[in-house]
Amino acid sequence: MKCPNCGMELEEGKLLCESCGEEVKIVPDFDIELENELKESISSMLEDMAAQEQTKEAASRTSDDGFSTIKDALSAYSSKESIKIHIFKRAAIVLAVVVTVGGVTAAARYKADTNRYNSFDYQYNTAVACAEVNNYPDAISYLERALAIQPEDLDARFLLAQYYEKNGQDQSTIVLLEEILDGTDYPDKEAVYDMLLSIYEKQSNYERIDALLNDCEISRIVAKYNKYAAHKPEFNKKGGVYEEVISISLKGNTKGTVYYTLDGTEPTEKSDVYEMPILLEAGDYTIRALFVNSYGVKSNVETQHYYINLAAPECPVINPESGCYTKPCLIEAYYDAGTKVYYTTDGSVPDKNSNRYTDPIEMPYGMNNFSFISIDKTGESSEVVNRSYQLEIQANFDTELAIQVLKNSLWADGKLLNVEGNVPGKLGINRYRVQTLYQKEGALYYIVYEEYLDTLGKIHDTNILYAIDVNTADLYRAYKLDEGKYDLRPLPNPNTQNEENENIQDIQEQQEGTPE
């Protein structure tokens, strides 16, 4: 087939000339050729008719030269009128033929146009031909008509979306692509997703990208646009009942921040930021987590409930039992290797912040209440073990009198300004208290701790200990070697200070050499 305008040979199926852009009609333009033939026929007929009439007129003149002038004139007039009438009749016939043929041609053309307008294939192929020469406005018009004829054709719908995008009609493109994805089984959904998400990416519409990815099951698409998505945070352990301490890790699907709560409340961007594993010890926990990606898109909240049911460790065994004692004793605790023992002396329940038991404890002088507890590696606590001890003796010098003797000696030695305990060069005072008893070679001693009380009421340990014989009130410097073990050195006279310094050095050397 050739182009009716420029004559260029066209490939089969082409409906638009690539050379001049002329539209090729399905029905051939035979009417143009027919009109030309009719014109030629009419001209020929008129010429023949005129020649025949002239021949007849010439013959009439030759055969009858004697006619009168009137007859000649009448004949001439009659001859001319006859020619005109004859020509008119012939012309009328030809005109009727032309009108008839023209009507048939117009009817054929109208029918062809109607068939093309209602032909899906014609409209579709013409749209493709227009798009091949980048004539997208016409391509869109033809394809919209094709879809009006056959609206269920998803390939044409997707092609129209592509033409919309080429023509800069993003919103129309989006509407069409989302219609294809919504409830249809289009086989090439991957291409539809890719095209739609790329438009939203260009528009920075990250919320819509996230919504589409949540419904998308095509792994390549999800991976390609994953950075814009905000999936629920992932928990390394599912909720449930656990009989051990566990740690919970949280993570998002891409770069961003995870926020969480432990009390079941709704997490927000003001909640705790997840930075390290969350340790869950005994008890109930409801962890709710929210992920916000680097583009500000928020995920739905993920919730997991945990119940940590830990078996309580065995109670520590404490010796001796509660009671009254007149001789120094050591308080000892026996416990499982996997636990630690903590204690208090004020009647409160101990926890891991209380005093930790590591070695036997000297029984304090007077009345004292101890509470012990074991805590295992999981943080689970045993039941509390309580002990009450009363350590007192009958002696020649009770604790008050023994301390008074000590103060008088220190005053006389110049270490105190008076028996009230004022200290030379300081504003505070020294205080003395009996901590425990010590027995050596049949003799009993009060072990006295010296403390300094400053003007603000704060107590400072001076690390100086004294020992006082409960029966003779002899005074000694005491140096603790271990729990329940002391080295005693008699208090020196002022004139024997150097000897005291040597004794102190000896004691320190003994302490350094004593194994723990």
Low-pLDDT residue spans: 26-31, 494-501
- How would the global form be characterised? rod-shaped
State the major sheet.
Answer: 5 strands, mixed
Coarse structural class: alpha+beta
β content, as a range? 15-25%
Using the CA coordinates, give the radius of gyration. 59 Å
Strand order of the largest sheet: 2-9-8-5-6
**Alpha-carbon distance between the termini?**
111 Å
Helix fraction, binned, reads 25-40%
Number of helices: 11
- Rounded average pLDDT: 84
Oligomer: single chain
Please give the number of β-strands.
22
Task: Summarize this structure briefly.
The protein is of the alpha+beta class and 516 residues long. Helix content is 38%, strand content 24%.
Characterise this structure.
- This protein is an alpha+beta fold.
- 38% of the residues lie in helices and 24% in strands.
- The chain is built from 11 helices and 22 strands.
- It has a 5-stranded mixed sheet, with no helix packed on it.
- A hairpin with a 5-residue loop joins strand 20 and strand 21.
- Helix 5 runs antiparallel to helix 6 and helix 6 runs antiparallel to helix 7.
- The radius of gyration is 59 Å and the shape is rod-shaped.
- The protein starts with 29 loop residues before the first helix and ends with a helix.
- About 3% of the residues have low confidence.
